[in-house]
Amino acid sequence: MKKENSAPTMKDVAREAGVALGTVSKVVNGLPVGDSYKARVEEAIKKLNYQVNSYAQGLKANKTYTVALLIPNTRDPFFGLLAFHINLALLKRKYRMLLLCTDSDSAQEQEYITMAQQNKVDGIIGLTYNPNLIIEENTPFVSIDRSLGSKIPCVACDNFAGGQLAAEKLSDLGCKKVAFLRVGSSLNNEPNKRKAGFENGCLSRSLEYEMKIINDGESFEQFVDFLKEHMKDGRLEFDGIFCVTDGLAHFTYNQLLALGLRVPEDVQLIGFDGTRYFGTSEYICSTIVQPVPEMAEMCVELLLQESMTTKPPLVCLPVTYAYGGTTLEPKFEE
Amino acid sequence: MKKENSAPTMKDVAREAGVALGTVSKVVNGLPVGDSYKARVEEAIKKLNYQVNSYAQGLKANKTYTVALLIPNTRDPFFGLLAFHINLALLKRKYRMLLLCTDSDSAQEQEYITMAQQNKVDGIIGLTYNPNLIIEENTPFVSIDRSLGSKIPCVACDNFAGGQLAAEKLSDLGCKKVAFLRVGSSLNNEPNKRKAGFENGCLSRSLEYEMKIINDGESFEQFVDFLKEHMKDGRLEFDGIFCVTDGLAHFTYNQLLALGLRVPEDVQLIGFDGTRYFGTSEYICSTIVQPVPEMAEMCVELLLQESMTTKPPLVCLPVTYAYGGTTLEPKFEE
Lengths: 334, 334
Fold this sequence. Notes:
The structure is a homodimer.
Chain A: H1 10-17, H2 21-28, H3 35-48, H4 54-61, E1 66-71, H5 77-92, E2 96-101, H6 107-117, E3 123-126, E4 141-144, E5 154-157, H7 159-172, E6 177-184, H8 193-204, E7 208-215, H9 221-229, E8 231-232, E9 235-236, E10 240-243, H10 246-258, E11 268-273, E12 287-289, H11 292-304, E13 314-317, E14 320-322
Parallel strand pairs in A: 1-2, 1-3, 3-4, 4-5, 5-13, 6-7, 6-10, 10-11, 11-12
Antiparallel strand pairs in A: 8-9, 12-14
Helix pairs in contact in A: 1-2, 1-3, 5-11, 7-8
């Protein structure tokens, strides 16, 4: 039974509407749900007089100067770099950072969000692939790379522009027929836009292209088969390849060598992320560089900015191209 | 003025003895200091009846289930991997982890140690190069790779055995004259033992060797000069090289190629750490692998084990050799 005088919670709304908690979460955070569900939730909110703002107010009064970072791991170089810069951005502002690597246990993510809601942390920055997160309205949360609803700011690099830039670069470097290799995600995340950007770039340059897309969790061997199918008389039909990540570009590089091809002389290769050897040394491949320090700063700014009443739902920060040995060398200063 | 009834602190001891706080810290933690300093500190401790155990007792009664990790950054692959596994080991035990990347600001390290002493965290795991850390007696602290005194457990891989294994491997793989390239540290840290282990291995196999050692912060160009000085008629005088880290091995690999040498046909190359492409893919070079998950578990075990009255001052965990393309391929199962 609900205690007297206590404000209604999202759980109460779910019970009243006869829907799952996740559905209420989606409605209050502006994510799409079926019309009939939406109507039931809105009716329940009205009936119970559910106050979506109560938490944010409570948090202001009771600061912990602690922020939680949810990230799959710090072993992957992109995640490790991101965690480092978010840590620096928080420390600069005298905030402490709790790290929760979620590779092992996605239930822990939900625990951390609950902790934020109980004011044990001032907010959360999350790069999460968990499709079932429940986030109370106005829990201070900034998402990286994936939109969790129109009311939760999402910070990403400009993935569309990055895909387009890759196509334009390959065209500028003399490629006539290119391929895009991608590991797709069923989640509606920002990196998926690399594909649309790449297609757009190819079309604008009248550059012929093919795509090979596999799903998350499927074997990279499908890419090997794709490459083999496009070999003719010891030559590859493509003279340029854009891979959706540097990790995939590195894998592809090894496959191309195994097929007896030279990189970049026979095939030019561009990855995405800006991964460097040992974090600070040269680029592992020619790549579209994500502006990680700027993304980290933006996450922290948006999270801690209390006076901002309307936060931007999506912030895309500019990417750059970097030469990393797998494309022809630039002839001029660029 | 000291308040009545409050227990004497390390600061009081320093004032009484007329020495710096760091000196008192060294004495209570069993680090070497000059005899006269030691005598003065011990006299002051006796006179003030300074109780070195007070903190540890306080901590037991007032748990936060939070541990701080001090680490230079999570951008370097070894640090990123270590942070990830320490995070997993703590989460498994329902502890939260504060991350403090200290690359930017070593003063922050001291702040975190003070926080631990004020019971805001239950303990600290630290991989630190700060030579002036002040750690109160019995602050729960586990150090990685560097001894901070006989009363603070230090966890490392078996660096001596790793150096020896590298020499033995190069010998087994047919090398006749080898080189050791090292970036030395003035701190008395565990990775320094790689050198002694390597020399020992060379001597036991009657393997001829030379060493090139530069100091932290000096330019890697000195290694390039060293290699050039040992070129004769387009051949290098060494047929094997052991580098103190994978990062240096990667650098050296590129230099050898630039000199027109083939790796591993002309020169075999072994690094140290066990760095993999993208954290989980293949090894970047043939390498001595640090047992990072086991090191992380050991750090957490030693930190949280309260019933253990005498903690081991140094724990060295076994290393292994891994083939990573820069040595001749193993002919048999090893």
